[in-house]
Design brief:
Rossmann fold; 7-stranded parallel sheet; two-stranded parallel sheet; globular; binds NADPH dihydro-nicotinamide-adenine-dinucleotide phosphate; binds 2-hydroxyethylsulfonic acid
């Protein structure tokens, strides 16, 4: 199994849960120290192997070098989880920053295209494999302050649908896992390290946890080869849509 963005949140938890099943793991992200910690935990939990390499999905050179390393290390990939990504900023479009928009499109949309292109040659000889892209409820519902993030997650959904068509007949499966708000490092990154504001995002609600989303990823990845889970949309009970959130007071 190859997981991008495995240094924290959903990616790290997916690696840990898959480790319980004794799999071979290929883990990528930019923070190698964090990848090392996750890999050590995975080995303790029963992974057959947990290999790590620095990966920046915003760079074609980095992605291609990562795929070459994956080929040399494992020879094949059966499960690809395109999870790397996140949001930067909450400004309305009139105040938006180029660097935030570009980082979001690079990681959440172009990153999936790049990684999939580079890894497909390791999957195509082995029908039954699966690509799981991590989208968001934001791919389906736009909200104020989310124009660029929602747009690149909508791109993720379209990429997933196009790939599903392109890979028809190969025996490879493609699906999207689309969570609503989940407490990971997501808000801390989006709000540029402001811990108080990040904590306020989850105040008075019980959000999804990384483990809840990882369970959906692991479940989808472990269906029989003739079953393709095309889409999972999941939110915490308090969230009916991004802007309809029931918060407990006090
Ligand atoms: P985290 O911030 O905890 O994890 C994001 C992961 O993506 C990190 O491992 C980070 O690693 C990696 N990443 C980001 N940019 C790059 C890059 N350019 N190259 C390689 N790795 C990168 O957040 P989540 O676990 O919540 O987010 C995972 C995915 O889930 C994202 O795609 C996010 O958009 C999506 N999502 C999150 C939701 C939430 O509310 N938490 C809800 C719906 C979807 P590093 O910084 O080390 O490179
Ligand atoms: C993250 C969920 O609702 O903050 O993708 O956009 S949301």
């Amino acid at each position: 199994m190859l997981v991008t963005g495995a240094s924290s949140g959903f990616g790290a938890e997916t690696a840990r849960q898959m480790a319980d099943m004794g799999v071979n793991l290929l883990l990528g992200a930019r923070r190698e120290d964090r990848l090392e910690q996750v890999a050590a935990e995975c080995i303790k939990r029963g992974a057959t192997s947990a290999n790590i390499r620095k990966l920046d999905v915003a760079s074609t050179e980095s992605v291609n070098a990562f795929a070459d390393w994956a080929k040399a290390t494992a020879g094949r990939v059966d499960v690809l989880v395109n999870n790397a990504g996140g949001a930067h900023g909450m400004e309305y479009v009139e105040d938006g920053q180029d660097e935030d928009w570009e980082a979001m499109f690079q990681a959440n949309a172009l990153g999936i295209l790049r990684v999939t292109r580079a890894v497909l040659p390791l999957m195509k000889p082995h029908p039954g494999g699966i690509i799981l892209n991590i989208g968001s409820v934001a791919s389906r519902v736009a909200y104020e302050g989310g124009a660029a993030y929602c747009a690149c997650k909508a791109a993720e959904l379209s990429i997933t649908k196009a790939l599903r068509l392109e890979l028809n007949g190969t025996g490879l499966r493609v699906g999207t896992i689309d969570p609503g708000m989940a407490e990971t490092e997501f808000s801390l990154v989006r709000l540029k390290g402001d811990r108080e504001k990040a904590d306020a995002v989850y105040a008075g609600v019980e959000p999804l946890k990384a483990g809840d989303v990882a369970e959906a990823i692991v479940w989808a990845a472990n269906r029989p080869a003739h079953v393709c889970i095309d889409e999972i949309l999941m939110m915490c009970t308090a969230q009916a849509t991004p802007y309809k959130l029931h918060r407990l007071k006090g």
